[in-house]
Amino acid sequence: MKLFYERLEHNELLSALENNQTICKSLAYMTTFKKYENLKVVPKTHSIEIFNDEIILSIILYVGFENNEYVENVNKSNFQIVSFQKTTNEMYEFTEFSNVIKFIEPKALFYTSLSFATDNFSNDLKTILEIN
User: Fold this and answer.
1) Which are the contacts of 119, defined by CB distance < 8 A and separation ≥ 6?
2) If we measure between CA atoms, which residue out of 30, 83, 21 comes closest to residue 52?
3) Whether the model pTM is above 0.85
4) Do 29 and 35 meet the contact criterion of CB atoms below 8 Å apart?
5) What is the spatial distance between Cα 10 and Cα 5, in angstroms, rounded to a whole number?
6) DSSP 33
7) Which of 59, 67, 98, 110 is 20 to 30 A removed from 129 (C-alpha atoms)?
8) Which tens digits make up the pLDDT trace of 48-81?
């Protein structure tokens, strides 16, 4: 795994997104309730960007996003902002657009990705979840 970010968990997230379209599609679906294909993943200084011709989705990782990646994309159509941290909406740096930041619970992303997955391993996990 290549290290782009200072924090290991951000590098792990980047790697998971780069290597798994199902996770990208699930996250995009959770923000717009629309399915997208051929999503690309690009690490940015303060965020991870997932995009194609129809959507730009930024996952906020660090303060500084508001001065750089946000300004770069704010006027583009279907620009979505996501955070996995509940505290992001309460941070002073993000007050101007806190009403558009979508908080995604990581476990919800996990279960949505599992429901979108079609490989045998994922299907076996779905079966195990249904055991009473």
Assistant:
1) none
2) 21
3) yes
4) yes
5) 6
6) S
7) 59
8) 999 999 999 999 999 888 889 989 999 999 999 9
